[in-house]
Amino acid sequence: MDGLAAEIAQHGLRIVFSNVLLQQIGVPIPAEPTLVVAGSLAARHALSGPAVLIVALSAIVIADTTWFVLGRLYGARVLRLVSRCFAPPTSACVRTSAPSRVGG
User: Where residue 90 falls among pLDDT bands split at 50, 70, 90?
Assistant: First the structure.
């Protein structure tokens, strides 16, 4: 094993958790390769499949709950920050906050 597979085999669930959490928070790193390698290692019994699933789902729930709480507490300020960081300056979501009406 080399590269990503060796790191995941050695550090296992910590890498899966960290990678998935960072991606869900918004850091532009892919979690899919880590999950594919973790799944492959689980198939070879080098990692526990159920543990990989629980760790990945926990990271997703923690990140999504964090975004929900931030949005609930700070609403528009968080939206402006996220829009400034991730959206192009001409994005329609920055110019208007009213929902558009479809079909009429």
Answer: low
